[in-house]
């Protein structure tokens, strides 16, 4: 966490999960309210900022996106370093992306902060007819692992704001207690 003149505090959060689950589109929805049908990620880490008012505080969230690096298993500990929150994303229409969550959770626990706030996100909820993972399965995994959970659609802009805000509010709560 850092402080700057424009906001009360700034923190880093990361997006993680398999390739093509919708991470970039969730971020562009949240930071710029845009959606891209054919996102072709450039290789390298990218991030976006958004200022959010939580209570009396102005928080600047710096959210990092893998920008395609997860395809090559090239995510390193520096990606997670200093992050206070993570949106762990899978695609409800591709079971493999749900099965791989174990690997991502272990990695987050290994490299992330001990207080890391993790929100599990089942994206593409607009594609209900192609669903391979029941909402209940996501919820149960989240409960077992002590994570928050939400299904989203970056395409239809459903629950995107809510998923990020759930993470940000929790980070704010933890940070506030630490500063007391
Ligand atoms: P990333 O590799 O995890 O960053 O995934 P992208 O954001 O690049 O999205 C991968 C593909 O899924 C793109 O073709 C997107 O248009 C599509 N996509 C992303 N989010 C959604 C969604 O909520 N619904 C639908 N139907 N498609 C989505």
UniProtKB/TrEMBL annotation:
KW Membrane (keyword) present: yes
Presence of the UniProt keyword Membrane in the record: yes
Main localization (coarse): membrane
This protein's UniProt keywords: GTP-binding, Lipoprotein, Membrane, Nucleotide-binding, Prenylation
Membrane topology summary: Lipid-anchor
GO (cellular component) term, any one: endomembrane system
GO molecular function: GTP binding; GTPase activity
Localization (cell): Endomembrane system
Family designation: Belongs to the small GTPase superfamily. Rab family.
Record-given protein name: Ras-related protein RABA6b-like
Organism: Nelumbo nucifera
Lineage, uppermost ranks: Eukaryota, Viridiplantae, Streptophyta, Embryophyta, Tracheophyta
Section of the entire sequence shown: 1 to 180 of 214
């Amino acid at each position: 966490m850092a402080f700057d003149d424009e906001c009360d505090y700034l923190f880093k959060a990361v997006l993680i999960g398999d390739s093509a689950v919708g991470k970039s589109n969730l971020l562009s929805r949240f930071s710029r309210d845009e959606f891209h049908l054919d996102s072709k990620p450039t290789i390298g880490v990218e991030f976006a900022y958004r200022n959010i008012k939580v209570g009396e505080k102005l928080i600047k969230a710096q959210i990092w996106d893998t920008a395609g690096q997860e395809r090559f298993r090239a995510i390193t500990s520096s990606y997670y370093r200093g992050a206070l929150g993570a949106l762990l994303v899978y695609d409800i229409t591709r079971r493999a992306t749900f099965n791989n969550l174990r690997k991502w959770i272990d990695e987050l626990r290994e490299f992330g902060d001990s207080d890391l706030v993790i929100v599990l996100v089942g994206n593409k909820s607009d594609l209900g007819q192609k669903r391979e993972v029941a909402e209940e399965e996501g919820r149960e995994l989240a409960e077992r692992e002590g994570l928050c959970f939400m299904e989203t659609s970056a395409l239809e802009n459903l629950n995107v704001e809510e998923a990020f805000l759930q993470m940000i509010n929790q980070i704010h709560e933890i940070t506030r207690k630490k500063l007391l």
